Amino acid sequence: MAVNWLRKLASGAPVPVFPIVGRAGESALQALYLSPAVTVTRSPRHARALAVLGVIGQRDREAFRRVHDQVPAPRVTFWFSDTAIPEALRSSVVIGEASTDIGAQIARAAKALYGGQPSGDVDMCPDEPPAPWKGVGDGHGGEGMMGGKPYGRPMAMPEDDLRDGLQLDPLAFSIGPFSPLLPPGMVVECKLHGDVVAQWELVGRPYERTLAPVFYQALEEPVAIADLELARAASHLRGLAEALQLAGLGAYANRLRRGAARLTPGQSVDKIGGSGVLRALRWSAGTEKGVVEGDARVRLRGPGARAAGYPGDARQNDPAYAALGFKPVTQGGGTCVARWKQWIEEADQALKLAEAAARSQTMSSPSGLVESPLGPLTKSSPLPDCSDLIDSLVVGLEWSEAIAVLSSFDLPAVRDLDSTRAREDAS
Amino acid sequence: MSLALLIVSVCSVLLALAVGVYCVAAFDHAVEARVSGARGGSALMAPLQQAALLWYAPENRTETSDIPAWRVAPVLYLMFAAMGLALVPWHSRFVPVDLSTGVVLWGAIEPLATVVIFLKGWAPNAPFPILGAYRYVSLGLSYILVSMFVLIGVALPAESLQFKAVVESQAELWNVIRQPLGLPLFLIVGLGVSFWGPLNFIDADDLNGGGAAEDSGRIRLLWAVGRAAMLVAFSAIGATAFLGGWQGPWLPGPVWLGLKTLALLLVLVVLGQYLPRPGPERFLTIAWVVLLPLSFLNLAWAGVEALL
């Protein structure tokens, strides 16, 4: 009786889901965040379900298998992706439908699992240590303890700390491609001294970002500026939501995600996100770090470059924007907080532009060049990836600062028009 | 102590823990829902649903983890919170554990919590939990020192290290007025030792859950309950040391203590949802350069006031 009551209580809670975000999985992730039926977790260990959103690259299939098995079994694997379903999961995976709330679909499947049917899916990795003992002896002493590789990994040997020369044991690990701390697809090998990043090496670039369809449409035909600007504001607000989440303000992050999903022309960012909280971001980690200078400003493009004082913005070349009185917003300093401020001010400006454009029904003037939320987008040369810029910016920072700096950038390449169109045709 | 009194004492502590932890979770859910604008889910039912979900969630293993340490750390942390609550006098005639050195015992719990938190981060043998543990060890001393000076400040007017005497010394004037810096400093320590809200450096999102990143099922539930219980213990000790404990007109003493504790809990939970987390190093600087001198000042003020 009591057990049934407890199970009933458990099934009333939102289902914790860990998202595996692949190519073109961004919009499905936002839908998950907004669904009341699920909560999005930061660690696969906290989840009861795994949601595969978008296409997973061949390079990352092994990582997928490992993350899959990190969700404690019995688990639900939800497939909302064009990637072929692995053989081992074919009979158990729940295939998502685009027509209904994907959070509700996951919750239905997970609650059936809580009830004992079906039994969930199988592990994909063999049940054996990934790095077995390779040292000499039984693990306590022997050659392996000094310079060998007891568990297939080098033992931590003291190194000079970056800051004060104290000898510290380095902690080396790799992170990505499905970590919520990094853009989807990005893989990094890093080494920490205590909490300080001593080495940061990019070993896998993030997946290309798929922009809102209106930006691709604007490359070829006139579109309502109000739509373009609302999509821009939504993109910036989602970036800010991640920064708030990392700063421990998860509730405000969700508020911003909700606001970004239902923007209307003329709203103010302060009202959507809470002005005090956005200002309070100044107190969070890493605000004055991650300074972008020199040529990196130009390579960085878009809001990141404008936050470092580089005023390039393709909207300046559009007469329709000129008629609306558009002038690019810029900041000085190129710091992490300058980039957050840039997002806030650009989102605010976009909402005002959307209001003015909606009133006058202004359409964009297609010239083959559109200022996207990540930077200038053309038909011929999509925005390239610049995630390698991070390597030199985060070494010497504390982990929390490094992650905050990373969250202040939009680094991935942008998917080109042709591949986006091909995907639309296929679907 | 008679057997009956022992049973009543144990039951009162367990009841306070259960009610307090439930209130923390319900307050937190309600404030979060208000801030985020999320619909659905009752704040009264959400804590029970979450607890049931974790109760049934499967346990997790990592490679070459220290499973006994992983399991025992949340239990010890919860036990420390219970020990703190046991020191709180509900009334002049009822204190579950009425030690003449209660203030000292509470002061000893905080460094012991450091050991347990490190153990919890170390046990899963994984990068993010150990990073969370490192962070706490680097910050823990600054919390402990501030807490110690603040608590000595309340012991001075009472001329005793017994919490009952501390409450009785506030019959005419509560310590929150007598030593205005004391309560805010103590609450900051409370946020730090419970690693809650802006001082949650250990289980932070920038470590994908940090100390709890590898937890699932009942260990995660115990750890969450332990953190909430520690917040309850800090609120109850704060209400005792600064808000006059059981003292107040019309209502019975335990009701006053409960109301004051809930008020402090609400403050801590609201701060947790509204304040961003600073960088650990920035907070360490603030702790040593601002909070510690302020706690000296508070102590000096208390000393002068006791002499006059």
Describe the structure.
The complex is a heterodimer of chains A (427) and B (308). Chain A is globular and about 65 Å long. Chain A contains 16 helices and 12 strands. By secondary structure, chain A is an alpha/beta fold. In chain A, strand 1, helix 2 and strand 2 (38-40) form a beta-alpha-beta unit. The termini of chain A are far apart. Chain A has a 5-stranded parallel beta sheet. Chain A has a 3-stranded antiparallel beta sheet with strand order 8-9-10. Chain B is mainly α and 308 residues long. Chain B is globular. The termini of chain B are far apart. The model of chain B has no long low-confidence stretch (mean pLDDT 91). The chains are: A alpha/beta (427), B mainly alpha (308). At the A-B interface, helix 1, helix 6, helix 7, helix 9 and helix 15 of A face helix 1, helix 2, helix 5 and helix 11 of B.
